[in-house]
Write a structure and sequence with these properties.
about 20% strand, Rossmann fold, globular, homodimer, alpha/beta, 7-stranded mixed beta sheet
């Protein structure tokens, strides 16, 4: 994760830990490495994805980095034996040739991420893997309505005019395929559209409060944040109608790329 | 799989075995059963999905059924210790309460499959799982062009007017959620859009020749089949442009449902 103006909240991010960890599990399940001497969790967040790498490859093989001090503190507390450092994926370079570079839900915050992905793939040992997962939800109501609420109120419209720019858009799967096939032996790309079962529209707001809403909330005062969230939650109630049991399904498409060097 | 006019070809179906087995693996990975006394592979095909159940639960726990004699012969040869029977998912009923009912790429051939899924879920033991995967590709070029080729030639247009009816359309994920949540403790629904890397448009035709194209090819003479396939392959070359390395990405969306009774 990349820090913006204020730090990330690790505790609130993990309120939906099962749902947030599933894409990382699904990604790692498609990496057919029996062992690894050097596996790096790039943008490790609070360490929930790092823990999956440790389960598979052991403590000695795994390291992680993130830009957020709060996330790093949480990750270190969770996995005391692991080396975590503060670094930015946009410029980070591995020492030596890694067996696995793992990027779970981080590259959407990195400008020009296709070029970054190719640069990183070149650093892998032959036979090593790059594994990437990115939310591809900018066209979903969850994100279209963030932009709509930002534009709808003269109190904050000017301040939030560039908030949507914090995210780099996921591009067509064929673009990742072509870019990585040029430097890799094998490339697999897929998209999974999760339908997370949440208690209601308020839970959708809480889900994104710690991720996608941050560039919209950070520039606002406490009172404005509350008003923004109330308006956003109302729109979520419209966009995600209740199922028969009263819950809502949060549709969340995510792009996956697994490439073998 | 459900037989139509001629039998299924197990050997040609397995020409893409890795790609065809991956959705079954992905489905089983989301079934958190440590063990099972009774796991049934419904519409087992040539046994590649059944083999995954055997790896997880052991030979004694697993059985399978299919409508196709050729598929059943292949499955029996592959897994000699397993009880395979000829049966149709539309009417089949389990003996006793199964721990797992597994339906990989079969329910799209069963009319009114949502009602069938609910009927089957009710037969599970408490805590047992229903696991379903269905291709959701009727709106993809791969299938739109089957219908277009069928309608385009007066030699066969009348005979193929109902060919598309063989498939039951996948409905909105929320419909499966509501139908199953009424009889289950927990329901998860997701869609994965695979992008299978194939050698070219001819490989797309070979992929569907043993599945989706069957209702279109079966009513035709040998010569007509060859003409149909040539026209279809031409359209695939238009619809799936080559990647930089000359290969094509076959976009194939599949719906998954995992429900715990």
């Amino acid at each position: 994760m990349t820090a913006t103006q204020t730090d990330w909240s690790a505790a609130r991010y993990l309120a939906f830990e099962d749902e947030r960890t599933r894409p990382a599990r699904d990604l790692l399940a498609q990496v057919p490495l029996d062992g690894a001497a050097r596996a790096v969790d790039m943008g490790c967040g609070p360490g929930n994805s790092t823990e999956l790498l440790v389960e598979r490859f052991g403590t000695a093989a795994v390291s992680g980095f993130d830009t957020s001090p709060d996330m790093l503190a949480k990750a270190r507390a969770r996995l005391p034996g692991i080396a975590f450092e503060q670094a930015d994926l946009a410029t980070w370079q591995p020492d030596g040739e890694p067996d696995l570079l793992f990027a779970n839900a981080v590259l959407q915050w990195v400008p020009d991420h296709v070029a970054v992905v190719v640069r990183l793939a070149r650093t892998l040992r032959p036979g090593g893997y790059l594994a990437v997962q990115m939310p591809d939800n900018l066209d979903e109501p969850s994100h279209a309505e963030m932009r709509a609420v930002a534009a709808s109120d003269p109190r904050w419209a000017a301040r939030l005019a560039r908030a949507a720019d914090a995210r780099d858009a996921v591009v067509d799967p064929g673009v990742y395929y072509d870019a990585l096939q040029a430097v890799c032996a094998r490339v697999e790309v897929w998209v999974t559209v999760y339908h997370h079962v949440l208690e209601g529209p308020g839970a959708i707001a809480r889900w994104f409060e710690t991720t996608g809403l941050r560039p919209f909330l950070n520039p606002l005062s406490q009172a404005e944040q509350a008003d923004f969230l109330a308006a956003y939650t109302d729109r979520m109630a419209q966009a995600y109608p209740a199922q028969a049991d009263g819950r809502v399904l949060l549709r969340l498409p995510r792009l996956f790329v697994v490439a073998r060097r």
